[in-house]
Design goal:
The protein has 127 residues and is of the alpha+beta class. Helices cover 39% and strands 26% of the residues. The protein has 3 helices and 5 strands.
Length: 127
């Protein structure tokens, strides 16, 4: 397990058990804490890494293809846990995961797009 610790916040690669928390953080971000589920669009991105505190997912980093066609790492957080330093650590963890998972620069754009579409479709189907 590739885990890094920063002030009691752990960083780890995304896994199936953390997806529900990731979707909840995303939903809260885009819905201003409304309780209804909105289908996940393509800009949901592909989650790569999570930040946890006391075994609770408090943030996640994801990759998406930006408007100029380049991979971009972003993150969403539960507001009370956000800090610039912790965000940088999470994004570094996500960047390392991205570089390992999508090692071939020639094919990474299409692979990220395909993986993102498949994940969003699967999550939308499950809800």
């Amino acid at each position: 397990m590739d885990t890094t610790k920063t002030d009691n916040i752990l960083f780890d690669s995304i896994n199936i058990s953390s997806l529900k928390s990731v979707v909840n953080i995303y939903q809260n971000k885009v819905n201003d804490n409304e309780s209804k589920f909105v289908k996940l669009p393509g800009h949901f991105g592909l989650p790569l890494s999570v930040a946890t505190f006391d075994n609770r997912v408090i943030g996640y980093a994801f990759v998406l293809i930006n408007k100029v066609g380049e991979p971009e790492i972003n993150s969403y957080w539960e507001q009370e846990f956000y800090s610039v330093e912790v965000e940088q650590d999470l994004k570094l963890h996500a960047q390392n995961t991205f570089n390992t998972t999508f090692a071939d620069p020639e094919s990474r754009k299409i692979k990220v797009q395909n993986a993102t579409e498949r994940l969003s479709s699967w999550l939308n189907f499950c809800n």
